[in-house]
């Protein structure tokens, strides 16, 4: 599985570039700020961006989206419950972070369980509300059967996303963690902020994990 992490934007949001080593086609998850480093890496490795996935609609995960639209077109995926945040970013955190982002109107809304096929990969949408109404994780499987979970701001290493912002709900977040608790302990987790982890470590060490 080919992927690279790029810390982007004011909050060093983890964005992830995945690509197929045969077709050199790629998708990116959560462009949270200036994507110059991402584009330089793609150019140096002859990688072509075809798709963007968004774990949720907060400004620190979408601020660089317009830099990718010329490449991805309307192939931008976000859960339907956060679609309003992508259409109108001015309603949320951009004033607080001093970041401006124009809204996006041409994209694809997804629901829980949606399978997105991409060259070399299969991507399953797991709706995990709590941080926002439409927060989602992406379970990514490559052609060799290797798996990773991109968890956005639902799950961090020994922590979880905050629930005190608009659309947050601690009860729903608990329910979402119970959904993730059904996954295998060895599953590698790529969070929206901070270091990598795995389900087994979070089951053992995360104080927010369902008991």
Helix content: 10-25%
- State the low-pLDDT regions, or none: none
Structural class: alpha/beta
Give the termini distance in whole angstroms. 32 Å
Mind summarizing the main beta sheet?
A: 6 strands, mixed
What is the CA-based Rg, rounded? Answer: 16 Å
What number is the mean pLDDT? Answer: 95
For the secondary structure, the number of strands is: 14
Q: What coarse outline follows from CA principal-axis ratios?
A: globular
Number of helix segments? 7
Q: Order of strands in the sheet with the most strands?
A: 1-2-3-4-5-6
The SSE string, one letter per element, is EEEHEHHEHHEEEEEEEHEEH
**How much of the residues is beta strand, in percent?**
25-35%
Structure explained in plain terms:
The protein is an alpha/beta fold and 211 residues long. Helix content is 23%, strand content 31%. The protein has helices at residues 36-44, 59-62, 65-72, 83-87, 94-97, 170-180, 199-205, and strands spanning 2-8, 13-19, 25-29, 48-53, 76-79, 108-110, 115-118, 121-127, 136-142, 147-152, 155-156, 159-160, 188-191, 197-198. The strands form three sheets. The protein has a six-stranded mixed beta sheet with strand order 1-2-3-4-5-6. The chain has a six-stranded mixed beta sheet with strand order 7-8-9-10-13-14. A two-stranded antiparallel ribbon has the order 11-12. The longest helix is centred in the C-terminal third of the chain and has 11 residues, at 170-180. The chain is globular, with a radius of gyration of 16 Å.
């Amino acid at each position: 599985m080919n992927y690279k992490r790029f810390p982007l934007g004011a909050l060093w949001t983890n964005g992830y570039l995945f690509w197929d080593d045969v077709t050199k086609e790629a998708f990116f998850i959560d462009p949270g700020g200036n994507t110059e480093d991402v584009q330089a890496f793609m150019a140096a490795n002859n990688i072509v961006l075809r798709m963007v996935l968004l774990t949720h609609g907060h400004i620190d995960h979408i601020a660089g989206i317009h830099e990718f639209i010329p490449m991805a077109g309307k192939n931008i995926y976000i859960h339907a419950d956060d679609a309003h945040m992508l259409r109108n970013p001015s309603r949320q955190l951009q004033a607080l972070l001093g970041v401006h982002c124009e809204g996006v109107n041409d994209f694809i809304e997804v629901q829980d369980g949606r399978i997105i096929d991409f060259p070399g990969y299969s991507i399953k949408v797991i709706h995990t509300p709590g941080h926002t109404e439409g927060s989602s994780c992406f379970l990514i499987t490559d052609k060799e059967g290797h798996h990773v979970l991109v968890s956005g701001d639902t799950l961090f290493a020994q922590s979880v996303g905050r629930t005190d912002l608009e659309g947050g709900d601690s009860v729903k977040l608990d329910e979402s963690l119970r959904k993730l608790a059904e996954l295998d302990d060895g599953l590698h987790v790529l969070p929206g902020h901070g270091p990598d982890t795995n389900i087994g470590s979070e089951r053992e060490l995360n104080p927010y994990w369902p008991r």
